[in-house]
Known about the structure:
By secondary structure, the protein is mainly α.
Amino acid sequence: MLICRSLTRFPFRNRFEPTLRVYKWAERINSVEKGNEEVVMISAIFHDVGKSINGDTNHAEESAKICRDYLLDQGFDLDFVERVTNVIRVHSSKEMPAEDLSLEERILIDADTLDETGALTVLWDSVDTGAKKEQSYLIVYNRVAEALEHKKGDLKRLKTDEGRRLYHERIEFLESCIRNLEYELGMQ
């Protein structure tokens, strides 16, 4: 199955686990924002399936094509298929103004942005550092601190109130983690 293929650069990752996490974030956001649940959840399942084929090169368009073919083959109504594939097509367009997006598009963009933010940021940087030749707590600390600054910049990309709320929680967690690491590493 292509969706589960590991990414060679990061052997501890696969395409399936991020899909499940984005699905869960989409479910959480949608429970508050009240988009069309079927559109949101199907688009979350298919949003990155094209990465398994083309990597990151225009994966949103490839994912939309795969989803379109599948849904049409399963007998879904063409209007519904177009709604879902439009959501998938724009899910990486994080710079688009929220007012130019449907609610379902905003929900999937936020769900995708939330993935690997928070505790998973710390896990990601720890596991990836541990797989390298040079390893230390300080290297992980520096990576997490750098990731935090980058992720703070992503806050402006969030499109829904619930997505922003959840993202703020993740940022607060990372800030607390950094403070604790500084204390425990004797940096303060």
